[in-house]
Amino acid sequence: MNDTYHLLTTFPIETLDDLEGRTIVGAPPLAPWLGGTGAIAVAGGLPSMYQQIQTGVAEGTIIIPTGAYPLRLHEVAPYVTLVDTGVTTTGGLAVNADSWDRFPEDVQTVLTELGLEYSLGHAQIVKDMSDEIVQRMGDEGSTIYPLPDSDRAAWVAGLPDLGANWIEAVSDQGLPGAEVMSAFMEGARARGAEPLRNWDE
Question: Does 200 map to a domain?
Fold first, then answer.
């Protein structure tokens, strides 16, 4: 999995209103995340972001710290607003049922137990690395500011119905989109998560 997304901008963001009319570069799949903020999404990839911000094509980016720091994006966008959107990329090891059933029971047990241990350990490593990079940005002159919880909630409330859009796209392929979304959200809530928006409702 990757780390969570934040904003790096050429201007300070103290409230959500500060994004109104501002150009934010990011990977095209992230454009819907800016919905309801008043920001203008600009398509771009990692190789072009520094120049796009430096030349004024964009006034900031929505990006993960581990992607931003090696590119030195905080040099041209020194205001780091901690948004904590969550992650977009996760990975996993899948085994089909026939193969799984052929594994000895002790192998199944090891894979099940180590799988959970590995997932938790990997998530912690990614979080620690991301936190360290944000600290480095601050040490190198960036202004670090956490977006207030009220603004995060307003941002999420103003988003288009991303859950319904995903369900529709998946269901159009003949797959059980609604069931998957419901299982995911119910599983997250059962484990103590408190989503800012229930995408299955």
Answer: no
Judge whether residue 118 has pLDDT over 80. Answer: yes
Q: What's the distance, CA 200 to chain centroid?
A: 19
Q: Are 26 and 44 in contact (CB under 8 A)?
A: yes
Count of domains observed in the chain: 2
Angle between helix 162-171 and helix 177-190 axes, rounded to 10 deg:
140
pTM for the predicted model, two decimal places: 0.87
| Domain presence at residue 117 | yes
33 and 46 together in one domain: yes
- The average pLDDT across 96-122 equals 91
How far, in Å, CA of 189 to CA of 84, rounded?
A: 18
Handedness of CA 33, 35, 38, 43 (dihedral sign): positive
Judge whether 146 lies within some domain: yes
- Sheet containing strand 6-9, edge to edge, reads 40-43, 23-26, 60-63, 6-9, 79-82, 143-146
